[in-house]
Q: What sequence folds into this?
């Protein structure tokens, strides 16, 4: 099963940093995942995101308005895989 990770944001440097951290977490954990960037503001609202960047794992908003470190994203992914 492939995990879908979405980075919500307008494409700013913070969004790029978050996407990079997400990719590093995927590599560290060795899971099958796809990182997708979403720039459509209507999608931000759909997930209830108030401040960018946002991180969505399997359609669940897990972080908003900050850039979680790689270790934290790795933990989030591990929890998503365990479910």
A:
């Amino acid at each position: 099963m492939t995990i879908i990770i979405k980075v919500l944001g307008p494409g700013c440097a913070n969004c790029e940093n978050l996407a990079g951290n997400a990719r590093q977490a995927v590599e560290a954990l060795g899971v099958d995942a796809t990182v997708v960037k979403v720039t459509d503001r209507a999608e931000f609202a759909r997930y209830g995101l108030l401040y960018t960047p946002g991180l969505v794992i399997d359609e669940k908003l897990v972080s908003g308005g900050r850039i979680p470190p790689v270790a934290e994203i790795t933990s989030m992914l591990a929890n998503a895989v365990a479910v």
About this structure: Residues 13-29 form the longest helix (17 residues). The mean pLDDT is 95.
